[in-house]
Amino acid sequence: xxxxxxxxxxxxxKGRLTPDTDRRHKRIHAAxxxxxxxxxxxxxxxxxPGQEGDHFSILADDEHVLTFELTHGTWARPQDxxxxxxxxxxxxxxxxxxxxxxxxxxxxxxKALGLPPRAWGQSIGAEKAQALAEAELARLEDECxxxxxxxGSPDRGAFGWLYHFGSAxxxxxxxxxxxxxxxxxxxxxxxxxxxxxxxxxxxxxxxxRAQFRVxxx
Length: 217
Fold this sequence. Notes:
The protein is an alpha+beta fold. It folds into 2 domains: 5-113, no CATH class; 126-215, no CATH class. It has helices at residues 5-14, 23-32, 86-93, 96-113, 126-144, 168-173, 206-212, and strands at 42-49, 53-60, 64-71, 79-85, 148-150, 155-157, 160-163, 165-167, 186-189, 194-196, 214-215.
């Protein structure tokens, strides 16, 4: 008999990993970090016991599904680890009930992340984010009158993509006098909005990164 939506929701909320307070969750979280560096919030979608270990399906934020086998042992390395986008995971499942659980899991995850509900496919991808960031950088370049470049790869998280940028002169010299002042990094949201954050925000500060839900790649 198919599970009711409230039952699925309750099960998923209970399956949110809390590695700071739950030893079992800490072990699962440590296994995830051995092959997947992104993500803030993880929910257990499924766990199938086996003779040598358990097979897990984990929702990472509201973007990816991770599948792996964790053999019995204190801090075992995950086996047969795979990372799916939500779309590819749903396509591989091809089963109505599991697809329904994924939709509810998405709602639960976005609530945990402090993000509003969204329909499937509304989030822009990394390529679109890069294009938007480059367009905004060109606009800022015209505005300030000297060449600008991105400084390193963007940080990516549940809210979107964080791009650090500065003058081309600073990128080449790394001298203090060439630093561009008065701005913070550029944030491209997953809805496609572009913001230049205030310079007073320290994006290396844990609280600030949590506010904008950005994690290092």
